[in-house]
Design goal:
The complex is a heterodimer of chains A (about 110) and B (about 110). Chain A has strands spanning about 5, 10-15, 20-25, 35-40, 45-50, 55-60, 60-65, 70-75, 85-90, 100-105, 105-110. Chain A has about 110 residues and is mostly beta strands. In chain A, a hairpin with a 2-residue loop joins strand 6 (about 55-60) and strand 7. In chain B, a hairpin with a 2-residue loop joins strand 5 (about 40-50) and strand 6 (about 55). Chain B has strands at about 5, 10-15, 20-25, 30-40, 40-50, 55, 65-70, 75-80, 85-95, 100-105, 105-110. Classes of the chains: A mainly beta (about 110), B mainly beta (about 110). Chains A and B meet through strand 5 and strand 10 of A and strand 4, strand 5, strand 9 and strand 10 of B.
Chain lengths: ~110, ~110
Amino acid sequence: QQQVKQSPQSLIVQKGGISIINCAYENTAFDYFPWYQQFPGKGPALLIAIRPDVSEKKEGRFTISFNKSAKQFSLHIMDSQPGDSATYFCAASVDNAGNMLTFGGGTRLMVKP
Amino acid sequence: KAGVTQTPRYLIKTRGQQVTLSCSPISGHRSVSWYQQTPGQGLQFLFEYFSETQRNKGNFPGRFSGRQFSNSRSEMNVSTLELGDSALYLCASSWRGNQPQHFGDGTRLSIL
């Protein structure tokens, strides 16, 4: 059972544009939602994370929007740059149950110059 | 501060063999988790160790096992290797039983 569904699988954006990646979850016990960025040959790197007590969190060009009632959250990358080209993963976990992340399927982002 | 270190980076084995992968967490981190990454199944949780005890286990067969030492370093072992075990195995550490997790660059295991 895939508990976190991520879309789209791939995304092409022009430089300076906005990249939007969406995730939906099923387990209402999830209370921690991080986003990871992965470059080829590297492990995932934590970008930004949110907890359900806020609806939005912004760090630089990266913003997470969270909709608890819809069980959805999304990553917005503003002013997308070619260096942002990577695979992005959303994830979710139950905070007091230890470190067990459930990942979405990933989105391969390409930012064209 | 050094990041999560995984050794070896690449490994080639044949079916039926066993393999041990190593992970050194960030200094001070006591929780170590292992994940398997494949093109077909994506990133899947294997198990988590905290203070030398397995705290969580994913849905993998008993051929996959792990342990954690008193210095928080962790190893995972896969016995009787199958072709489907070919994957990138990632280790992540965090300070305690809470987020965030920081990943190493993984061990690429290929089964011939």
